[in-house]
Design brief:
This protein is α+β, with helices and mostly antiparallel strands. The chain contains 2 helices and 10 strands, in the order ααββββββββββ. The strands form 2 sheets. Strands 1-2-3-8-7 form a 5-stranded antiparallel sheet, with no helix packed on it. Strands 4, 5, 6, 9 and 10 form a 5-stranded antiparallel sheet that branches.
Length: 146
């Protein structure tokens, strides 16, 4: 086997291994980072998060509305698959007509899992500097019960 072919095989193997992650580790990291229950609405004194539809499905539009204090602004965010490695999807926020209300719409790809756990990672610009919010999401294939 020539050196070029051996080098290409090595690069492909390293690329594959670098892209893989242990789903249990991802879930544990997600739990530690957000401490939130898997809910369709999360409401605190400062933040309101809602998702439509309540049981999102892959390859269908998913809309999120995020209400923040007027002096907070979400930055470009990421949706990261937790159940299995699927990379991350960029999430861009648009301001609503109401102060402090932001929305986004996106789709996720389907996979072999009937339920897929995701985490939305939202960096915020606040008067105190940069903060982060982490929201759990679940997608469901068909009418799978929780």
């Amino acid at each position: 086997m020539n050196i070029w072919l051996r080098g290409m095989i090595t690069v492909l193997i390293l690329t594959y291994l670098g892209g893989c992650s242990d789903p249990a580790t991802e879930r544990q990291q997600a739990s530690q980072m957000n401490g939130l229950d898997n809910a369709t609405d999360m409401d605190t004194a400062a933040v309101k998060f809602s998702i439509t539809p309540a049981r999102p499905q892959p390859e269908q539009p998913i809309s999120i509305q995020l209400t923040l204090p007027a002096d907070w602004q979400p930055q470009a965010s990421q949706l990261v698959a937790i159940t299995m490695y699927m990379g991350s999807l960029p999430v861009v926020w648009e301001a609503d007509d109401s102060a402090g209300v932001w929305h986004t719409t996106f789709q996720v790809g389907a996979c072999a899992e009937p339920q897929m756990e995701w985490q939305l990672r939202v960096p915020l610009q606040t008067p105190h500097g940069q903060e982060f919010l982490f929201f759990p999401l679940m997608t469901y294939i068909g009418d799978v019960d929780e």
